[in-house]
Every structure is written in structure tokens, then in C-alpha cells.
Write a structure and sequence with these properties.
Elements (H helix, E strand, L loop, with lengths): L1 H6 L15 H11 L4 E2 L20 E7 L1 E4 L1 H9 L4 E7 L3 E6 L8 E6 L3 E5 L3 H10 L4 E4 L6 E9 L4 E3 L2 E4 L4 H31 L2 H8 L6 H21 L7 H5 L4 H10 L2 H63 L1
Parallel strand pairs: 9-11
Antiparallel strand pairs: 1-10, 2-7, 2-9, 3-8, 4-5, 5-6, 6-7, 10-11
Helix pairs in contact: 5-7, 5-9, 5-10, 7-10
GO cellular component, one term: mitochondrion
Protein name: Transmembrane protein
Family: Belongs to the RMD1/sif2 family.
């Protein structure tokens, strides 16, 4: 068992945090630190109205990794069912795969949630154990991301009587895995949005010089093919955000178990899921507007070039006809 465990290790130092650890994410984390405590209504429990104070309790890691566009949950489920490290494996509505991990020599609880849109959320694991999970899921990834593109969000959690969340620390009143799953859905959507936000940032970097170039030169240096490729990438991003994944939809689990609705909405509000998604769509609209104008400009340039070529061809034919007529006239004169 120890030998298998060592084979599956992948150290998280191999996953570069630098390219994605920009000011945007850091600023959002700092803003969350300024928020008041959010009371978590877990199932049907009524929360106390008094102000929450930070309890003195042991804290454990909660880490989310966005490693791919999606996971093949069906085959991953089969693999985990046959893996001796997994004490329990359950699939929920085809969108979330849960497993309770059993790491040798560890007396702590280790919950792991895999989501169909390429995110895994680990509860109560060490960094080395998390690295094993990231390595394990690699063969079930759909369009896996490069290590430098992997997005990571980190939290802490502990157990206390009055559940709430503050400063990226989640206080629960039990180790109930359904509660963790609902919170994990919000965290998974947040880290997936991190990935989309990074793609939009890269697109903005690619197009931000275009308006100045048009103003200065009256045209852009990019070809029509390059512009169409950028438009295609942008539409693919918007499709994945709004239609290709269920990031903006209410989870099936919450639909079927409305007692968890308040908990999910609280976590979604704490992580600013909706305003971030709305902002992302607005930024995509602006980029799309710029690219469409450039595409029209290249179309116009192509039409103008075609018109010039057509005029040259017509003029060439006219000159040819006139020269032939002159030649015929000269022949007639010579005969007479």
C-alpha cells in the first residue's frame, strides 16, 4: 500500500502558482477578509442571532483544484470503487462524485469531491495527500490543463457549535459529508471562475493594443484568420461558462434537497459567484465587440482589394480589346 501511495505522489511545487496568483485573486481574498461572519444555515438548524466569535478549535485544510475542462466521472467512479484507499464512494446526480479516503497512518477524516466540470475539492488532507489526489485524477481528465494553468483556492475548516464562515475559515457543526458537498459546490464554482477569469485576462492582453493600432494606423496587423481564431476562442469560453457547464445553475442536489438551499446561497454570496460571472460576461461582450469591428474592418479591406483586382482585370480587358481593334483597323488600311 505504501509503495502504491508513493507511486501516485505529485508534489504541488510542480503546479506553478505564480502565473495565476495575480492581483485580481489576491484582491478578492483580501476583500473577503473584511467581510462580517456569514452564518451558515445547515439543514434545518436555526442559527443564533448573536455575533459570532472565532472559536478555539483545530483547523484543517480545504483546497480546490481546477485541473481540466471536465472529468470522466463514470470511469473515475469505477476506479475508486475498486481502490482500497476509498472507504465510501457515491455518485450524486451524475455531477458530483464523493469519496471518503482512508490514508494509512492518519486518524483524521478525509473527504474528497470531484465535479464534472474539472474541479476536485479536498477536505482535511495534507498537501502531500492532495497531491496524490491530483495525480490520481489525471487519467480521467477531459482536456487537462497544463500545470501553470491549474487554479487553486485554499480555505480552512473546523468544528464548532455555531456554524459560520469568516476570513476563508469555515466552521461547521458536524463532519456531515452532505454539508461539505454543498459548500464544495460553491468553492468548485469559484475556482472554475478563476480559470475563466484568467482566460479572459489573457484575451484582453491580446486585444488591448488593437484600438490604439486602428487609431494610429487605420488598420490592424492581424490577419482575418487570426481574428476569427480569437473570436472562436472567446465564444468557446462563453459557451463553457454559460452552457457547457452548470456553473451558473442551481445544483441538482439543492433542487432535490431544498433544506440545503440557504447554505448554498450563503456560500455562493460569500464567494461572489454571481457578480463575478456577470462581470465576466460583460467583459466578454466588450472583447467580442472589439473583435467584431476588427473582423468587419478586415472584411472591408478584403472587399476593397477584390474591387481593385476586379478593376485592374476589367481595364486590362478593355486595353486588350482596344489594341485588337486598332490592330484590325491597321490591317484594313494596309489592304486598301
Amino acid at each position: 500500500m505504501a509503495e502504491d501511495y508513493n507511486k501516485q505522489k505529485v508534489y504541488l511545487t510542480d503546479i506553478s502558482r505564480e502565473p495565476n496568483a495575480g492581483g485580481r485573486k489576491q484582491a478578492r481574498i483580501e476583500l473577503r477578509a473584511l467581510k462580517d461572519a456569514y452564518a451558515l444555515k445547515i439543514e434545518t438548524d436555526m442559527m443564533p442571532k448573536e455575533e459570532n466569535t472565532v472559536p478555539d478549535t483545530k483547523l484543517f485544510r480545504v483546497t480546490a483544484y481546477c485541473t481540466a475542462d471536465g472529468y470522466d466521472l463514470k470511469n473515475l467512479y469505477k476506479y475508486l470503487k475498486s481502490n482500497s484507499l476509498c472507504n465510501k464512494v457515491s455518485m450524486y446526480f451524475g455531477e458530483c462524485l464523493y469519496t471518503l479516503m482512508n490514508f494509512k497512518g492518519s486518524g483524521e477524516r478525509h473527504d474528497c469531491f470531484f465535479y464534472e466540470y474539472g474541479v476536485v475539492v479536498c477536505w482535511g488532507m495534507s498537501e502531500m495527500q492532495e497531491s496524490m489526489i491530483v495525480k490520481l485524477v489525471e487519467k480521467y481528465e477531459e482536456n487537462g490543463h497544463e500545470p501553470s494553468e491549474v487554479e487553486i483556492e485554499s480555505f480552512k475548516y473546523g468544528i464548532t457549535d455555531n456554524p459560520f464562515i469568516i476570513n476563508d475559515v469555515i466552521y461547521l457543526n458536524s463532519e456531515n459529508h452532505f454539508t461539505k458537498m454543498v459548500i464544495s459546490i460553491a468553492i468548485a464554482k469559484s475556482v472554475k471562475l478563476d480559470y475563466f477569469e484568467n482566460l479572459v485576462d489573457n484575451t484582453i492582453d491580446a486585444v488591448k493594443e488593437f484600438p490604439e493600432e486602428v487609431e494610429r494606423e487605420g488598420k490592424v496587423s492581424k490577419s482575418k484568420k487570426e481574428i476569427l481564431k480569437m473570436i472562436g476562442k472567446l465564444h468557446r469560453l462563453r459557451f463553457n461558462l454559460n452552457l457547457g457547464s452548470n456553473i451558473l445553475d442551481e445544483p441538482e442536489f439543492v433542487w432535490d434537497y431544498p433544506a440545503f438551499s440557504s447554505l448554498y446561497e450563503t456560500c455562493k454570496r460569500y464567494l461572489d459567484i454571481k457578480p463575478r460571472a456577470d462581470l465576466l460576461n460583460r467583459r466578454c461582450d466588450v472583447i467580442n465587440g472589439i473583435l467584431e469591428i476588427l473582423n468587419e474592418n478586415t472584411n472591408r479591406s478584403s472587399i476593397e482589394k477584390f474591387e481593385v483586382v476586379l478593376i485592374i482585370i476589367i481595364l486590362s480587358n478593355v486595353v486588350l480589346i482596344i489594341s485588337q481593334m486598332i490592330e484590325m483597323y491597321i490591317r484594313l488600311l494596309n489592304k486598301s
